[in-house]
Structure prediction request, 166 residues.
Amino acid sequence: MRLLLISDTHIPKRARSLPDQVMAAVDAADVVVHAGDWVDAATLDLLEQRSKRLVGVYGNNDGPELRRRLPEVAHVSLGGLRFSVVHETGPATGREARCDRDFPDTDVLVFGHSHIPWDTVTPRGMRLLNPGSPTDRRRQPVGTYLSVELTDGRLGDVVLVPVPRP
Prediction:
């Protein structure tokens, strides 16, 4: 199973639309996971139409319409693993212990907010993944997203994919 993890698209404030590279990854993915800060409902509509399956949450920059349509936290089983998706996890310091406490029944936690890619494992063994942002690189050399392979109930390759500026 191929997953596309994205977050912090901030359309139309930080970009007019999702880059073609990201849309090609949407089309290729079995599941698209968006960890919030869509900003406009049109991006949600687009991903609902184009994705084979979409899992999303709202972020701190998402208004009432997105908050009506999306949860603050999503829990889903994918390929035999328990995923949770949330926009914010708080400061980087203490993140692993805090996430172990707050998400005890999760194997993989996908989050956003910082626009900074993150891939660590908590003391309990939960994988923490932040794909960064494909449209607002904030202190990063380029935008990013994560491509993830699930095989036989395990995470396979987790690849940070650069999104060069057009």
Summary: The radius of gyration is 14 Å. DSSP finds four helices and ten strands in the chain. The CA atoms of residues 121 and 127 lie 5 Å apart. The longest strand covers residues 154-163.
